[in-house]
Amino acid sequence: MRIGMVGVGIMGTPIAERLLAAGHEVSAYDARAGAVEAVAGALPATSPDQVALGSELVLTALPSTAAVRSVYEALAPVARAGQVFADHSTVDPATNRFCAELLEARQAHFLDAPMSGGPEGAAQATLTLFVGGEEEPYRRALPVFRCYAGTVRLCGPAGSGTALKLVNQLLVVIHNGAAAEAAVFASRLGVDLEVALEMISASYGSSKIFTSNLPRVIARDFKPDRPIRILAKDMVIVREVAEAVGAP
User: Fold this and answer.
1) Which of 113, 189, 192, 195 is deepest in the core (most CB within 10 A)?
2) Are 128 and 6 found together in one domain?
3) Each residue of 65-107: pLDDT tens digit?
4) Residue 225 scores a pLDDT above 90
């Protein structure tokens, strides 16, 4: 399949690489000079609309709400009837509906498909995709999603995938904070952290984040594995959406 990719950054790059490895033709655009050229086998495009013109399915993975809105305003005028667009960015449900309406005016289809699992998940095809949209375009995009995701679910209409991803991000922040506090608490109590890892991993208090982070604490490895600004951006969205729906 001819697939367009707008945004080949931390997540877009391993996704594009998985698609190429699966035999798909990938045309890509990124605003950063040299980003597309770093993805071996991808065909560079000069703009988002050029990506859309030659593609059956267009994927976007962008760093901000403003970028998503701007890119879809550029994509919509060249969208074809029946063409499918899927956004892997984490934004807000209102932005998803904005993009969907732009494409509906062209009789094209929009799926919000934010992801969880990080770049390593994309590289290993184990990402989780929270998808919102209509059944028919979802079914058409699903074989492509399977190239880089292990768990994929249509969660409801446009915006539903993003809504669930925001719930996930709230839990990610809570669990990261709890795991860090637990590590400090255990250390102050004189608990051997290796023993803590073994025992809590087998207990109700465990979490994926605890079992992932504590070995790094034990190894004194505090190097960040991705920019904190991404999670900070997500939490601003969580707060704004929570306030809008009256969630405390």
Assistant:
1) 113
2) yes
3) 999 999 999 999 999 999 999 999 999 999 999 999 999 999 9
4) no
Whether residues 24 and 73 share a domain: the answer is yes
- Span 217-229, average pLDDT: 90
Q: Domain range spanning residue 209?
A: 164-245
Q: Is 30 in the same domain as 109?
A: yes
Residue 149 has pLDDT above 90, yes or no: yes
238 and 171 inside one domain:
yes
Number of domains into which the chain is organized: 2
Statement to judge: residues 178 and 107 lie in one domain: no
Chosen domain end from 104, 135, 157: 157
C-alpha of 29 from chain center: 17
